[in-house]
Amino acid sequence: MNDKAAALLKKVELPKMFRVRQVFDRSHIEPEEIPAYIENMLNNAPYTSKIKSGMRIAITAGSRGIANVPIITKAIADFVKSRGAQPFVVPAMGSHGGATAEGQREVLRGYGITEESIGCPIISSMEVKKIGVNEEGMDVFIDKNAAEADGIIVSCRVKPHTSFRGPFESGIMKMMTIGLGKQIGAETCHKAGFKYMAKYVPMFGKAIIENASIMFAVATIENAYDQTAELVAVDSCDIYDTEPELLKRAFANMPRILVPSCEVLVVDECGKYFSGNGMDPNISGKFPTPYASGGIENQHIVVLDTDEASHGNAQGIGLASATTLRAVKKLDLDAMYVNAITCKMLRGCEIPPFMNNDREAIQIALAMCVDYDTAAPRIVRIPNTLHLEHIMLSEAYYEQVKNDPNFIIESEPAPFDFNADGNLAFDLDK
To answer: What are the backbone angles phi and psi of residue 294, rounded to the nearest 5°?
Structure first.
């Protein structure tokens, strides 16, 4: 397929590339230290006084590739059990997993969260319960099993959102509002579009704190290497005041591409595992809405593949200018469209032109670029938008970065390493 286009692209010459290691702050909590860290953190007032023997406690688990999430979830469950209570995990992921109970259970299984690994039941259902209204009179829904539990512990990660800016982005408030809200709660919050998400996420979140048995949150902040940098316990009455400061710390810890601009950004893999938008726009520079900005400036993005852990939900692939047939064949359009309908944003699931292989996809993106030095095109290749320690840069950057302490050059410039099928090796993050 695409034979005529492929023939035209043969004349598009690709530059030599070299591998670099980007240097960020590595401060983190070692995985083996996490259980004791969480136990010590929670073994204090007010957390100990809230959990009493015999209580049924719901613990949230979301749909993102959070570092050490099975360890964190199990540690929270173990703490609940140590107080004589009965924990259970509820998938808190809005419409993800195809908006089905089994689909959401499967997402958790892909992250290593199973009843065997966590040591407590996982109760997955799309049924919700109305618990009240927010200050504008809008109905507020959360997972029925969580609503009927004696208490809810919100386990989540705090990070910048991909489509809007505000004091509360991806974090505790959003986990309660959209995650625990399941499909109907997520759709209700998204009803007015992303323009108003900075308003509605905390508005719904406050209503949930007031009307549901939220006990406290255990929030994770990650460093630029996808490691657990911080674990913070936040009492329910302190969430509104504390989360904005956690978001500032999350912004400071985010990975990024340390060159400011390029003609073409090549992304080896995209998908929900890496970001709610498949490719985090805070990294890629391509946002699905006008309500947020940041990331590397570029003319075009190429997505080469979709990752297995995202179960075909590559929401966000529509922000790329080109992709491959291999990536398109892996898409679960049902999961993507349900997600898009729920959040009122179809652009992310539009399928861009797809080529036979990686070489052609990169060539077509470069062929579409304008106003650049054709003798020295600037191309950046990353494994995904979550893991940015090892990336590749085209030869045009070599002089710029060779004496920069934020970069360690790991190879000399060489041609793209395509195999006989015209595809690249996917080992940048190893």
So the answer is: 135, -170
